[in-house]
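Bug report (template v2)

What were you trying to do?
Predict the complex of my protein with protoporphyrin IX containing FE.

What happened?
Run completed; filing so the output is reviewed.

Input:
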Amino acid sequence: MDPVATQTLLQGEQKARRTTVFMKILMATTGALFVFYVLMHMYGNLKILFGPAAFDEYAEHLRTMFEPILPHTGFLWLFRALLVVALVVHAYAAFTLWSRANGARPQRYAVKTAAKGAVRSKMMRWGGVFLLLFLVFHLVEFTIAKVNFNGAFSAASLGNSTGKLVIASFQLWWLVLIYLLAMAALFLHLFHGVWSGAQTLGWANTAASRRIWQGTAHVVAGVVVIGFVIPPLAILVGLVK
Ligand code: HEM
């Protein structure tokens, strides 16, 4: 091949590899913010075990945080904005990597699909899409529109208490089922996310560090998901009223 053409081809390939690495770093860093967020959110949700008033009080604390340096709900809105930006970046990087993998040479792709890693990345993609749909439903249900699906509770009896809405909601088995499915997806996503994030950042390049990060990924995903499923299950079986 003409040396100039070879040089151009090599430069193109190098640029593509750099972009892929950059996208993976974006995914790992925004993913780390989500891990922090779900840990905090899971901890906050456990307050419902002490009744709706305890939950509402905690939610109110989030709104008054850093007052008077920030206005009422100021910190909450700053954090919400950060989460939205991180979500857009995370999803953009994911779709970019997704389309790059799909555009790879057919024979390489055929070999890749047979590999374990390809099953894993498919699971991350479709699991991620499912989690995104869950998030939209979840935000409409508890934050944006505050929808009560449980006819046994009148709007007047719930007032504007999110704690009471949570209790009314998780008395419905089908809603608990939706949440359990989402949490199963979250477990897989968190486990593979933490593990591959550690690999991307170069923290898992020895046998010992690989074992440590696989263990960490299991613990993080396990703690988050077990913590999240406790309130809906406790409400469903009538332990929290
Ligand atoms: C069983 C699992 C979960 C339960 C029971 C739950 C419950 C809730 C409740 C009750 C609220 C409203 C809080 C309030 O207005 O004070 C809320 C808000 C929210 N949840 Fe969840 N959640 C769960 C899982 C998740 C997961 C996995 C994510 C993220 C992937 C998530 C992301 C959010 C976000 C972004 C908000 C809005 C917070 C805000 O007001 O800015 N939740 N959740």
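What did the reviewer find?
The radius of gyration is 22 Å. The chain has a mean pLDDT of 92.
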